[in-house]
Write a structure and sequence with these properties.
alpha+beta, DUF6928
Length: 209
C-alpha cells in the first residue's frame, strides 16, 4: 500500500454521484472558497491538480467547487485527531455535510470524520500503530464493522506476527473511500467508478502574510 491523502469534501449532494458525472470546476467560486478559508494568506495560482493526487505538501492547496460538492486537499486536514480541524473549515460547511479523510501509508495512519450540516460531529475515528486509537467519537458506520470486529484475511496474513490492531488501518481507509465517496485509491476498481484524473482541482501556493 502506498496511498496518501488529506482532503475535505463539502457535500450538499451524494458525493459519488457528483464525481461520476465528471463535473467541471467553477474557478471563480473556487478562488472565492480559498479566500474564505485562507483570509490571512497570499494565494498564488500554481498548475492544476486532480483528485487522483490528494496529498499536496505544506504550503500548497488544491481545491475545486462543483455543483453540489466542494473539495479541498490540504495538509490542514491531516491532524492526528480529525476534530482538531481548524473551526474555520467547519464553518465553511454552512448547512452542508463535511467529510474529512486522511491517510498516510508510511506510518499506517488513517483518520476520518463527518460533521452534520448543523456543525455537530457525527463520527470521528483515527488510529496509527505507534499511537493506538487516537480519536473515537460517535457510532461506527456500517463499513467499519468488519474491521473493528477483526478482519479475518488480515489476521491470517500476520502469520503469528504482532500488530496492535485486528485490521490494517489502510484497509479501513480504502473502505471509507469506497463507502463515502464511491472510489478507491488502491485495490478495488469498479466499471462505474469516477475517473479521478478528470476531477480537476485548481492549485494554489498558500503563504501567510
Amino acid at each position: 500500500m502506498g496511498a496518501k491523502d488529506w482532503m475535505l469534501f463539502y457535500a450538499s449532494d451524494d458525493v459519488s454521484k457528483v464525481l461520476r458525472s465528471s463535473p467541471k470546476i467553477d474557478r471563480e467560486a473556487t478562488t472565492a472558497l480559498m479566500q474564505r478559508l485562507y483570509p490571512s494568506h497570499n494565494l498564488r495560482p500554481i498548475p492544476d491538480g486532480c483528485l487522483d493526487v490528494a496529498n499536496p505538501p505544506a504550503g500548497e492547496v488544491y481545491a475545486g467547487v462543483f455543483p453540489g460538492l466542494s473539495i479541498v486537499c490540504t495538509r490542514d486536514a491531516a491532524n492526528d485527531a480529525p476534530t482538531d480541524l481548524d473551526p474555520r473549515f467547519v464553518r465553511e460547511a454552512a448547512g452542508r455535510t463535511l467529510y474529512l479523510h486522511a491517510m498516510h501509508s508510511v506510518v499506517d495512519f488513517f483518520a476520518y470524520a463527518i460533521w452534520e450540516p448543523d456543525g455537530t460531529v457525527r463520527r470521528a475515528f483515527s488510529l496509527a500503530p505507534d499511537s493506538g486509537v487516537i480519536e473515537d467519537i460517535g457510532t461506527p458506520l456500517p463499513f467499519e464493522e468488519k474491521y473493528l470486529a477483526g478482519d479475518p484475511e488480515f489476521l491470517a496474513s500476520l502469520d503469528g506476527d504482532d500488530y496492535p490492531f485486528r485490521f490494517h488501518p489502510l484497509d479501513l481507509a480504502e473502505e471509507a473511500l469506497r463507502s463515502l465517496f464511491g472510489f478507491n485509491y488502491e485495490g478495488l476498481y469498479l466499471d462505474d467508478d469516477p475517473n479521478l484524473e478528470e476531477i480537476v482541482l485548481a492549485g494554489y501556493a498558500v503563504t501567510p502574510r
